[in-house]
Every structure is written in C-alpha cells, then in structure tokens.
Amino acid sequence: MALKIKALSAAIAMLLINSAPTAFADTIYYNSTGVHSSGVWDWQSLGYVIGAGDNNSAELTLKGTSGYDHAFSVGKDGGKGTLTISEFSRNVNDTTYFSVGSVTKENMTLSNTEGVLNLVGADIGEVTTLGLDIGSSGFFDWHTERESTVTGILNIRDGAIMNVGEAENFSNNKAYVGAGNISNTGIINISGVGSALRLINNAPYYGDSVENGTLYLGFIGNGIVNITDGGELSAGRISASTTLANNGPATVAKPPYAEINVTGEKSRLVIGSQMILAADVYDDLQSIDAKLTQKGAGSAVLNVSDYAEVVFEGKANTDIDGFDNPVSGLFMAGNSATSAIVNLNKNGFITIANSSLSSDKDAIIAGDGIYAFNLNGGTLRVNDCSYCEDTLSTEVDMNVLARSTLESGDNKQMLLKGSLAGHGGIVKTGAGLVALAGKNHYLGGTWVEEGELRTDNDDAFVNNTPYTVNGGKLNLNEHDLVMSSLSGKGGVVDVTTANLIIDQNSNSLYAGSFAGAGSVKKQGDATLYLSGDSQQYNGAIVVLSGGLDSSRAVGGNISVHNGGTLSAEGYLGKTQVMNAGVLKVGSLYQNKQTPVSLEIDRGLTNSGSILLAKSGNIKQQQVGNKLLVNGNYSGQNGDIYFNTVLGNDTSATDRMIVTGDTDGTTVVHVNNVGGKGAYTKKGIELINVSGQSQGEFVQKDRIVGGAYEYFLRRGVGTDIGNWYLVSVQPAFEPDPTSPLDPEPVFRPEASEYGANLWAANRLFVHRLHDRLGEPHYVDSLTGEEKVTSMWLRHVGGHTRFRDNSGQLKTQANRYVLQLGGDIAQWSTDERDRFHLGIMGGYANQKSNTRNYRSGYRADGSVHGYSLGAYATWLQNNEEKSGAYIDSWMLYSWFDNSVTGQSLTAERYKSKGATASVEAGYTWKLAEKNKRESYFIQPVAQLTWMGVKADRHREMNGTWVESTGDSNIQSRLGVRAFIKGHSLLDEGKERLFEPFVELNWLHDTKNVGASLNGYHIEQAGTRNIGEIKVGVESQLGKNINLWGNIAQQIGDKAYSDTQAILGVKYLF
User: Fold this and answer.
1) How far is CA 618 from CA 672, 702, 906, 959, in A?
2) 433-436: strand order across its sheet
3) Cis bond leading into 326, ω under 30°?
4) Smaller CB count within 10 Å for the chain: N or C?
5) For residues 280 and 295, is the Cβ–Cβ distance under 8 A?
C-alpha cells in the first residue's frame, strides 16, 4: 500500500512539475525523480518543492532560465537527495535556497545527510552564462550544525560557475566545507576547464573584522576540496583545518582535518589574501606582536601537482610583526602541535602574484610545529608585486623531494631563511632574486636558469653537490663553496671575494663566465671545459689537479700545480701564468684541426710542461700553433714541446714568441710531423725573443726527420736571441768568402736498416764445401756409395762497415744454425754421383751503428728462418779428379727491429728467396806417397739475393724503404788442399783434408735504406777479397767433421770474419 502511495505521489509530482504554466503558492512534494525544463512557466508564486523519494533519497533536475525564488528540498529528513542544476543563470535572491537533505533556515544548506548538488554546464563555450549566483549577502553553508556524521558533496563541472557574493555589498560572504561538529565532512569537486567556485572579495579587512570571501575547510569538522582538469577556486582567504577567531581561542575536542588537492593542467587555486594551514587561533592581525598560539590540534594538506597552480594575488593591507609596509597574501603552515603538509609536486606551482609573503618572524609562513612543506618537483613563484620590497621572506623549512623550481619575477625577491633538505634539487627561474639564508642540506643539485640565486651565509649553498648555470647569476656573496661539478649553457658565477672549489670526477662543460675577485680552484681527476668569456674576472684561478680547458678569454692570475692541466686558446688577459703542471696551447673541447694561438698578457713562469704540440697519431697532429707571451718568460727547468715538419728553413712549425726578456733554463722537445728532412742553412725558428735573451733552451733527446739529424741551436749574428733547429753540426755564421756549406748530419738508424737487409740476404748463403763437408767427393778407402746422410753446421761471424757519407760506423755479430740431409743419391755410370737433399735453418744478427759527428747510436736486430733444397753432381774417375756442379734455393723470413738512441723501437718484417749455382773442377797435382796427395780446385759461383724488407713508416713519420735487394753476387776463387792420413791412422778409415781458399766477390748493388727518399748505403762492399783456411775430415766410416775460418776485406774499412763448424753422419 505504501509503495502505491509513493508511486501515486511521484506521478502527481511529475504531473504538476511538467504541466502547463501555472502560479503556485504552496509546496510541491514528490517521492521519486523529477525533471523540470522551465520555459514559459511562471514560478514566482511557487512555494517549496520538496521531494522525499524512496528512503528520502529523491532526485530533482532543474534546467532552463526561469527564476527560482523559493526553496527546493531534495531528500527529506536525512535522505540522500541529489539536486542537479543545469543551464541555469538566473540570480537567486536571498529568500531562495536549495536544500539537499532536510530543509533548514539557511539560504544554501546541505545538512544532516549525504546529499549531492551538481552544477553542470551545458557547453564549455558558454561558461560565462552559466552558474549559480547567490545574492548580495549570499551564504553557502556546506556543513551541518548537528551532532551526526554528515557528508555533503558539491560538484561543479563542465564549465559551470558558482559565484558567492557578487553584488554591490560584498561583506561577509563565506563558504563552510565540513565546518560542523566533530567529524562532519564536506566535499567540493571542481572539474573541467571553465568550471569555477568564486568567493568574491573586494573589500579590505582590518584585524577586528572577519575577512570576506572566505573558504573554511575542516572548521572543527573535515573539509576536502578537489580541483582537477582545469577547474578553479577563487577565494580571498582559505582557512584549512583551523579555528579562526578575533578574541581568544576556541575549544577543540578532537582534531579536524582539511585537504585541498589541485591537480591537472590549468587547474588553479587563487588566494586573494590569506591561506592558513593547521593554525588553531589567529589573533588580532593589527597587533604588532601578532602570533599564532596553540589551542588545540589539527591537520591540513595542500597537494599541488600535474601543472596545477596555487596563486596568491591578494591586495589587502595590514601590519604584521611590526612591518609598516603593506603586506598581504598570508600563508601559514603548521603551529605548535598542529600539523600541516604542503606537497608541491611535479609540475605544480605556487605563485605569489601581486602579493607579498614577508615577515621577520613566523607569522607569514609559520613552522613552529609538526608540519611539512614539500617541494616535490613543483614551482614556488613570486610575481607581479608592484609595491613589495621583499616579495617573499620566510623562515619555514622545506623538504626538497624532487627537482623543484623557485621563481622570482622581474625586480622581485624571495628570501628563504629556513632549511632546504632532501634528495631533490632546486631550480632558480625568473628575472628576480632568490636569496638562500638557511642551513641547507638538499642533495639533488642546484640550477640557475635566469635571474640571481644568492647565498647569504656559509651553509646556504650546499657543498659537494653539482651546480648548473644556464643563465642568470650564481652569487657566492663572499661565502666559500665546494662544488662537485659545474656545468651549464651560460650565465655568470660571481665568486665575489670568496673561494670557489670545483672538485669533480667527471667531465663537464660550463659555457658561462666567472666574475669577481676571489679564487676559483679546480681539483679532481676530471676536466672542466670553459667556453664562456671571463676576461673581466680579476681573481685567481688555480688548477690543483685534473684539467681546466678554456676556449675563450680568461682574466686573473692563473697557477697550474703539479698534477693539474690548463688547456687554453685565445686570450689570457690581465693574467700572469705560473705553470708547474701542464699548459696546453689549444682547447681540447674545441679540438680544432687548424693552428691555434694562445696569448698570455703578463708573463709566464714555467717549471712544468708547455705543450704547443697537439698529441695524437700523425694524421691528427697539427703544426703551426703559437704561444705569445706579452712580457717576460722565466724557465724554471720546465719543458716545452713543439710540433715541426722537419725540412728546410721554411718548414712549418709551432712557435713561442716572447716580447720581453727570458731567463732560466727550459728543456725543448720537438716532434716531427711528417717532415722528410732536408738541409738547413739558417734553420727553422722555434723561439723568438724580442728582449734580453738570457734564458737557455736545451734540446732533450734527439730530433730526427728522414735521414737527417736536427739540433737546437741559438742563432748567430743579429739572430743570436732566437733559437733554431738546424740539420748541420755545428751552427755556423756564413762566410761570404767560402762557398762551402757544412755537411748535414745523418741518422745512425739509416745504416741499421741497411745492416738488417744485408744480413737477411746473406745469413743462409753458403758453398758446396760448407754443406758437403767430406774429403773430396769419394770414399777412397772402400769405394762404397753412401745412399743418404744428415748434416749440421754452425756459423758465427762479425762484420764492420761504414756508410757512403762516412759519418756512420756499423758492426754486427751473427749466428747461423743450418740442418739438412740427402734424400737421394744415384749414379749414371758408376763413377759420377748425384745428391738431392733438403735443408732448413735459423739465424740472427745484432748490430749497432754510431755517428761519430753527433755521437748518437742505433741498434738493429734481425732473426728468422729458412727452408729449401739442394742438388749436386760430382764427377769421378780413377785419377780422383773431375768436375762438380752444385745448386740450391731457399725461402727465408725475418723479424727486424731498429732502435735509435732516445727513440721508439721500429719493428718490421722482411722475406724472400735466395738461390745459387756453383761449379768447380778438381785436378790432382801430385802424390807424395800412397797416404798423401795434392789437389787444386778452381771455383765460380753466382748467388741471387731476393729478400726484401717491408715498406715501413716510423713513429716520426719517416718512410723507410730497403735498397739493394735483388743483388747478384759473383764469386771466383781457387781452393788448394792435401788429402791423406798419417801412418798412425793406417787402416782406421780416417782421412784429413786441410785446405786454403782465395776468393774474389763482387756485388751488383750496394745494400742500404731510403729514408724519405734519401739513400744511405753500405760502402766498400762492391768488391771484396777473401781468404779461408780449414780442414775437412773423415773420423770414421760414418762420420765427417769439418771447420774453417774466413776473413773478408773490402773498401771503406769493410771487413768480415767468419767461422764454420760442421758435422755429417752417413747412413
């Protein structure tokens, strides 16, 4: 029955609501859902519209533009009513109220229920025509005065606007959210671009009156405001989780709670005057000693994130804590035992716009209690304050949880006296000033994008953290600082008179500049690259360790300590450089491939190393860098390095120019960059001195180019103050009466290349008797034919020769081990004999060459292996005489090295074939008795030497090529020997053959080397005379032993001594 009655009531209500235009003076009741689209209806005489609905949870939707002058109640007596107002812009007078829940006497009350009021905009484009306007003294009370638990929800969305207090009289417009008793909660959701709740505030307040246009959150109860997706809340004052009173404290039994969440792009919370978080009593604002006092406990949270913004733009004037200047925009967080949390999250903003948050004490941003101001990637902004002296001054501590921004507008200031701590970093933006005066501990680094970031005490800038300056100024303000790194795209680091230490272990680039008159000290293993202009810097720059690289002008005095490196180009103005480390001409960061210059304005003292030469491989090395010292140069046993293309007098080179005087001693190093070497007259100028040249520049190590040796010498005559590289020894002053020029000085390495090639072609060269090693060529005792054999020979030799210039003397020692054996023997007529065999060997030679003019020496070595074969024909007859022909061919391969004095060892390979054909004839001259006969054996031999060395490029760029390969050596000689045995050896199968041999040897080519096209050859080897003596023996039926000593003598002091010992076993 009850259901039928409710249904009937609903039908009647719908009929009445949707009928033709009618004047009503009474109340309309309905129990279900009503939807009204006004139009031509006249509602002026309407009384109350009350819907109870099922369980008193009715819903009512009002649409249209007609006026609603009376009360609407949806959800009676504790029900959960929902009232939706859509496309409605008619003003509501102060006799009209909307009640979602029970009817009360207030104009706009949600009470005793969990009702919902929806303000829904029809179109974003029409947001200015939509909204709910509450009249001149409109009162929006989103709370309850009863003891029960109440939740009220106000949804403002889709471009709807709610204005509270927008008439001529603006006083005392207030909004209460969750401001009832104990735990009552109100929720306001403002979402969508254009949606807004506006508490109008155009009148000033003066301490004894309540601020108009005020939003109270958690006024004893709990209040929550969610501003999302472009929504906006505007209020003159926001008091979150607070009791606000003019006279004394309020009694609070349990803690209230308030939360404001501002999220989403274009979402805004605009505060015109005050924002108070978790402050319980706010006493007389006009009092000079106005303070917050704890009268209870409360909590409040403000969350700002995702490109949302909280804006302080108040214009009210008041005196706070003794300030005479107008101050507004009150922002308090935390007091005594209360708690307040401000979470300024990623991409969130707090903007101080046309407001001043400033005080000497805690009245503006208070932090006496349990509170948290969290910078979590958002922005604290000060902007557009035309009358403020200090735009924001606070002693509140802040937690820097992520990289967050401090922004001060043009001519604005932000003074942060509290502590900044946490793992995040801070970013300074805006054209104004941010001054840090607290003891800070944030670890995430510091960025300056524009404006000025200043430290006001020793602990405000955090030591041992990274700093990045992309614009603006980082002002040390006479406070020392240690940076873990410095980087950035521009701006200024104003050292003032402080000490700045940059202690970094990873490379970084700073494109800005330094200013001030303090000191900048670089330490740590990494390099700091500077690309900005610091010419106006008047302080000191000290490179303690690691590198400092400058590609622009730098001012001040510079000192480079041992372990430090300064690389620079351009201008070191107003600068005296003290170098005990490394000074490099040229910026490593710029890495230019063309010559660069460095100008030092006020003198240079060098006890370290100066590198004009750019290091790297030969292709990367550049020549032509210049060091200009405007002033005096003092050498304190330091070093200086030059790159030079070693050639004639006009060769390209690095240079040092000193406009003043020189003193002390400096060691000079010269690196040849591809120079081929050439004869010099005056020499290649390295150092030019305009003043008194009292300093000494001493050559370190050798300077070589091609086949030439260079020397550092002081000039002569009018050039006596300058220093040159000359390839003659010694430096000379030309004699006009003598047309003769001194000889150039050649490198000993040139002869060593030739010595290695000479050995590679001759180590395995041998003759028939060196290998055969048997008396004559028959078994005279038995006549047996030996079908196979194995032989081994050892050779040791010593050679001396000179080069074709006469400056170089070379001597070498060699050793050869050669092993072979017959693999076949046969005869065609039972009197001759053919041998076919194979052989292999190992050999090495070590040599050294000395230039007697320069005193320099070089060492060479060659070692390698060979494999080959031989074939021999021996004629025999009853008279024991006859002819022979012997031939062989070998392939050899070698590893070579040449090491010049004070030069890097050069290593290369050689390989190739050698071949020989030899012929001779043996005559028996006489026979003394049956045991002793005399023989003579003329011989001729041709040997082709085809071992070649690889073309080689030295570390200094010199190209080395072998010369004299494919030489053909001819030998003509005669051998005389006695064959026999003593009476004691009769019947013991022993036979001895002592001999003496004379030979003439001729080479078609001289062996040598070409260094960059200049040939250095062996001298005295074209025609050589040789004498050899030895003995060959048969010690038993199957064993032969032989040995000999040979001496060769040639022209130009050539000589060679060799000894052979061989053994052969016949199977």
Assistant:
1) 9, 18, 15, 13
2) 392-394, 413-416, 433-436, 452-455, 473-475, 492-494, 513-515
3) no
4) N
5) yes
Q: Over the chain, what is the mean pLDDT?
A: 75
Residue tagged 């010595």 (tokens): 755
298 closest CA partner among 250, 330, 263, 262: 250
Residue 629, pLDDT above cutoff 80: yes
Please say if the pLDDT value at position 81 is more than 70. Answer: no
Three-state SS annotation for 433-468: EEEECCCCEECCCEEECCCEEEECCCCCCCCCEEEE
State the DSSP string of 787-842: --EEEEEEEEEEEEEEETTS-EEEEEEEEEEEEEEEEEEE-SSSS-EEEEEEEEEE
Q: Which tokens sit at 249?
A: 């404290």
3-class DSSP state of 754: helix
Please tell me the predicted confidence (pLDDT) of residue 97: 42
Residue of 361, 352, 368, 277 lying closest to 320 (CA atoms): 361
Cβ atoms of residues 970 and 939 within 8 Å:
no
Spatial separation of the C-alpha atoms in residues 838 and 872, rounded to whole Å: 12
Residue whose token pair is 């390979």: 909
| Cα gap 52→100, rounded to integer Å | 10
DSSP string, 980-1028: E--GGGTTTT-EEEEEEEEEEEEESS--EEEETTEEEEEES-SEEEEEE
Look at residue 856 and tell me whether its pLDDT is greater than 80.
yes
Among 71-80, 114-123, 209-218, 782-791, name the most confident range.
782-791
Query: Helix-strand-coil percent breakdown of the chain, rounded to 5?
Result: 5, 50, 45
Question: Which residues contact residue 767 at a Cβ distance below 8 angstroms, ignoring those fewer than 6 apart?
Answer: 886, 918, 939, 941, 971
Q: pLDDT digit string (tens) for 119-172? A: 544 332 222 222 343 333 333 444 333 333 334 566 676 666 665 543 333 333
- The encoded tokens of residue 220 equal 């004893």
Residues 26, 30, 36: CA angle, nearest 5 degrees = 85
d(CA 1001, CA 1024): 5
Rounded to an integer, what distance in angstroms lies between the CA atom of residue 926 and that of residue 924? 6
Q: Which long-range contacts does 477-480 make (Cβ < 8 Å, 24+ apart)?
A: 478/518, 479/455
Distance between CA atoms of residues 1038 and 530, nearest Å: 85
When pLDDT is cut at 50, 70 and 90, the band that residue 19 belongs to is: very low
Q: What is d(CA 796, CA 807) in angstroms, rounded to the nearest whole number?
A: 27
Q: CA separation (Å) from 967 to 303, 410, 944, 1000?
A: 94, 89, 6, 16
Q: What token pair was written down for 794? A: 């050892």
Kindly state the tokens that stand for 74. Answer: 């949806």
